[in-house]
Structure formats: C-alpha cells, structure tokens
Amino acid sequence: MIRRPSPRALLALTAGLVLAVVAAVAGVLLTRGGGQPPKVALPLRLVKEIALPGDSSRFDYASLDPDRGLLFIAHLGASQVIEVDVHTDRVVRTIDGLPGVHGVLVVPSRHTVYATSTDANQVAAIDEATGTVLHRSPTGDYPDGLAYDPLHGTVWTTNESGGSETVVDAATGASRGTVTLGGEAGNVAYDPTTRQMLVDVQSRNELAVIDPTTLHITRRVPLPGCDHDHGLTLAPTDHLAFVACDGNARLLTVDLTTWRITGSDRVGQDPDVLAYDPGARHLYVAAESGWVTTADNRNGRLTVTGRAHLADGAHVVAVDPTTHRSYYPVPDGSDGHPALLVYRPGP
Q: How does pLDDT run across 43-74, given as a tens digit for each residue?
C-alpha cells in the first residue's frame, strides 16, 4: 500500500519547490543583469521622425556618411539596406538582394557601403552613389559586424557563430585571410592609433587584439565582470575601448595603453549597438530592451548622463559628429509604421 503524504508534508514540499523556482529565477536575473537599472532622464530632444519603407520587421546596424548626409540602415527582416538622406529627410532608395542583412558600414573615402548578408554567409560591396552591388565575397558562418582598415585597404567581418574574422580586399572583394578567434565573435573595430584590430570574443569574455599585417592575435585581454561582450566602439584619441556586455547589462571602459578596465557602468538590458561622438566626447548605448544610455567621456572616465526607455526596438544607434544628432531606426514609429527617430542633445 502506498502511503499518502500528509497535508503538512505536501505544504512543505510545495513551499520548497516555490523557493527553488524563485532561487533559479533570481540566479538567471543576476546572470542577465538583474533587471533594468535606475532610470536617469535622457538629455535628448526629438527633432523629427522620418517614415521608413517596408514592414515592421527587425532593423540592425546603421552607418552614416556625415559629409554627404547619407545614412544606411540594415533592414534585416526585409533583407535590404535603406538609404536615407538626413539633410533632406528623404529615403533615397532601398537596396535589395541582401539576405538576412545584419552589418552595414559606409566607407566615405571609397564611396562604398559594405553589408553582411548573414543568410548567405557573404559580405557585399555597394556603390554609395547608385546602390549597385559591386561584388560579393564569402565569409564564415553568420557574418555580423564590420570594420574597415584604411592602412591595408581591407574590410573585416565578424563571423559570430563561426568564431572567426574574414578579411577581404575592400576594392576587389578578394580574400586576404581568416583569423580564428577560439570563440564566438562579437563586434570588431580598427584602432587608428595602434593600427590594430580589436574583436570581442563574446563566449570567452575577452578582447582579442590582432595585427592586421600578419593576421595573428597578439594579445587577449580578459574582461572580468563582463558576461558576453558583444558591442564595441572606440575613442581613439583617448586610447579607450567601450565594451557592451549583453549578458549582464554592463558597459566596460578599457584603457588601450595599459589594457586595464578603468570603468564599469550599468546600462539597459541586452545592450547591442554603440556609437561615439568624438567631438562632443559623448557615448550612446542602444539596447534590445529599447533603453538607451548616454555618457560623457571626461579625462578618460565615463559619467552616465541618461538612461531610460527610448522606444521599443531602439537597439540601433548612429551619430553625426558634425551636427551631434543621433538616429534610431525602429519598427514602429508614432503611426505604427517603421520610422527613423532623430534626436539632438538637449535638456
């Protein structure tokens, strides 16, 4: 005969299960950043909202040619790049045939835009003036972010799940080599001061420093306090790297002279794209949660000036260093259709 547990035993068992679930959830939240940080009013004022074409599917990276006033936006869900003239508030064209486009990078000196076609494992070169695809190059698995090395005339793509960097000739698209990272690739950036490439190795919580001449990793920089370093941008004149850790919603400041972490700040959940305005020395961090964090860089130290929800889907930001305006493509604007939100600094 099976003995049934008493009501008191059942109550104790239920309480134990509840506590176990609560502890597990708390552990996950701790790992993932513990919820949104305290809100700080953003020092931004909405200037305008520019209607974008297409459906309300996901946008990804954006890149600006400030001299020509052309902003290129990866509309991942539509597999196209949208070109917007921010001087006239007009959509110039959409560039199709870029399956699963994630990364986009305009190189004004070459009048060329580069875009990663993630679903095709390719990087495409596009004529900035006409929108014509000039050539396509094979990459590793799941190409995402992009960087340009002007000294060697190469474009670097981070192959996220492939755990590598593909290096191609910016003019011809010919392969220049591959760098194996030993872990998932986050974003990549070129440091004009040291003439080296920096790459997030997000599954190892470290920065890899690469010699672009030999394509060898010369240094691995541990990032204690960071879970899954994905976002990356630099302040070259101050010899700083800013690293966004999307696993625990932290922003790290790394001194590129000493390779030490000199700052750690809370940002919105799941930080993604970073943009830095060198003239204003102002940093923007856009998160998957729709939160944006702004910070001032003074003497190599960041001070958070704003941190709040900007808009659903506002995980992409680009900044104009000439006007200091910032741009956020979102799937749903005020009328429920895709839009480009334009903000200026201001109280």
A: 999 999 999 999 999 999 999 999 999 999 99
The Cα–Cα gap between 26 and 21 comes to: 8
Tell me, what amino acid is at 138? P
Q: Which residue in 246, 244, 220 sits closest to 232, CA to CA?
A: 244
Taking the mean position of all CA atoms in its chain, how far away is CA 246?
10
C-beta atoms surrounding 57 within 10 Å: 13
CA distance 98 to 133: 10
Provide the edge-to-edge strand list for the sheet that holds 90-95: 62-65, 70-75, 80-85, 90-95
Residue 345 carries which side chain, given as an amino acid letter?
P
Pairs from 79-84 (Cβ < 8 Å, separation ≥ 24)? 79/117, 79/119, 80/54, 81/113, 81/115, 81/126, 82/52, 82/53, 82/54, 82/329, 83/131, 84/50, 84/52, 84/340
CB 257 within 8 A of CB 232: no
- Sheet with 282-287, strands from edge to edge, namely 271-277, 282-287, 291-298, 301-309
Report the half-sphere exposure of 236 (CA within 13 A, side-chain side).
10
Q: Please work out, in degrees rounded to the nearest 5, the angle formed at the alpha carbon of residue 215 by the alpha carbons of 214 and 220.
A: 115
Report the distance separating Cα 273 and Cα 328, nearest Å.
10
Q: 281 with 235: CB under 8 angstroms? A: yes
Give the position of tokens 């990356």. Answer: 232
Q: Which residues contact 128 (CB under 8 A, 6 or more apart)?
A: 65, 68, 70, 106, 108, 111, 112, 113
Block residue for tokens 């508030």: 89
Alpha helices in the chain (DSSP H): 7-31
List phi, psi (to 5°) of 260: -110, 150
Structure confidence by residue, pLDDT tens digits, 180-238: 999 999 999 999 999 999 999 999 999 999 999 999 999 999 999 999 999 999 999 99
Distance CA 191, CA 212 (A): 11
Residues paired with residue 232 on neighbouring β-strands, in sequence order:
243
